[in-house]
Amino acid sequence: MNQKSTVIPSEEEVKTEEDKERKAKPILPRNSLTREDHLEILRQIYLARYFDVRLIKEKRRGRLRGTLYSSQNQEAILVGTLYGLRSDDWISPVHRDMPAFFLKDMRSGWDNPERKGMSIAQVCAQVWGKATAPGRAKDNWSHIGSVPLGIIPSTSMLASTIPVACGVAYDFKLRNHDGVVLTYNGEGSTARGDFHEGLNLAAIHDLAVIVVVENNQWAYGTPVELECPTEDVADRARGYNIPGLVADGQDVLDVYDKTMWCVERARKGLGPSIIECKTYRAFGHGDHDDQRADRYRSKEEIERGRRRDPIAVYKTYLVENGILSEEEAKRYSPEGKHAIQVTDEDFPPEVVEAVRKGVEFAIASPLPEPEEAFKHVFVEE
Ligand SMILES: Cc1ncc(C[n+]2csc(CCOP(=O)(O)OP(=O)(O)O)c2C)c(N)n1
Fold first, then answer.
1. DSSP secondary structure letter of residue 186
2. Nearest 5 degrees, angle CA 270-CA 37-CA 116?
3. Can you tell me the distance from the alpha carbon of 23 to that of 12, in angstroms, rounded to the nearest whole number?
4. CA-CA distance, 31 to 85, in Å (whole number)?
């Protein structure tokens, strides 16, 4: 059951009158989004982009240490997969998904203390390695999570969170709860045993696990064709008899539509699915790899990969559908610009303000006491 088109049936899938009707008049999940939803989705994409560029700038100013794994050019995947989730759904972000920790459940209100997502301040404290961080300064990046917030902590072992997601979804099943667990993975992670074992388990037990594959074409210095033998990574779904959807990772609404299709299915107890979101890693694997990545990838390839900025793609849709005027669409324009070229003027003030508060909180927070290094390492009596 490989269903690449799914939301709109492909020519081969049109077999009945109903299929024909569905193809002619597709009821896309996006059709239920209001104008406010669209504006909020755009704001969240700006927020993810601004968070990323702000960290790059902070590091260049010498105010930040550690490696940055940029999510630039991949923001539509994070916002498109998270926007339609419920507060009680679970997620598991990995190294390239830092904004996901605060974007989760952002629809409940950016400053809502009841929100089931981390605050921007918490995520900034994590990046700055401060005592106030969820990881208590033992790490400066994504090795954080929270049971009350429904976030599975990431580990460095790629794809290792998929079997854990199966455990969470199995618990949902035992409790008759219709929540879903959405896991993020790079295409490189899909070559690991945990990916396959996890999917096998999820498929056998019809678990509500949605495996999002952010196919940015590169796993460190290894191109996708040396990681995956099938045409699309989503083709791996065939082995587990589950849907494998391919989404345009630059188009937030395509990602949203396909995610909601998988979510609805999973909530009904119909089991897991894979959504491969095609995108391109804009920079190096981490910032330490930026210069090298300009050598192991051709200039033309990089330009091609960055050409369809998700902000520009979404703005085009918003203008064409009368949600934004041409003027409004031009008001904030970070798209297509490198982190060092953009300024705060390129982003809506509320976005700049939200990240500014988070950065200030992180900078003002204390470093941990030395004894903290030995706390919370082993189970304490
Ligand atoms: C099991 C395992 N092998 C190797 C690594 C080292 N490593 C960290 S990230 C990475 C590349 C991951 O590529 P991909 O999954 O495609 O995600 P991307 O970084 O492109 O978003 C590698 C090889 C690791 N963390 N875990």
1. E
2. 65
3. 11
4. 16
Query: In the block, which residue shows the tokens 């902070």?
Result: 58
In whole angstroms, give the CA distance from residue 232 to residue 259: 17
Q: Is the dihedral of CA 118, 124, 127, 129 positive or negative?
A: negative
- Specify the residue for token string 């105010």: 63
Number of residues that this document lists for the chain: 381
Q: Does pTM surpass 0.90?
A: yes
In degrees rounded to 5, what are phi and psi of residue 353? -65, -45
Give the integer Cα–Cα distance in Å for 147 and 168.
10
C-alpha gyration radius of the chain: 20
Q: Kindly state if the Cβ of 163 falls inside 6 Å of ligand 1.
A: no
Residue written as tokens 């894979």?
Answer: 274
Counting beta carbons within 10 angstroms of the beta carbon of residue 319, is it exposed (0 to 12), middle (13 to 18) or buried (19 or more)? middle
CA of 218 to the centre of ligand 1 (A): 9
Q: Pocket of ligand 1, candidates 73, 96, 158, 160: which has the most ligand atoms within 8 Å of its Cβ, to mutate?
A: 158
Residue pLDDT, tens place only, 62-106 = 999 999 999 999 999 999 999 999 999 999 999 999 999 999 999
Nearest to 355 by CA among 144, 74, 38, 56: 56
Q: Which residues have C-beta within 8 Å of that of residue 28, sequence separation ≥ 6?
A: 7, 8, 253, 257
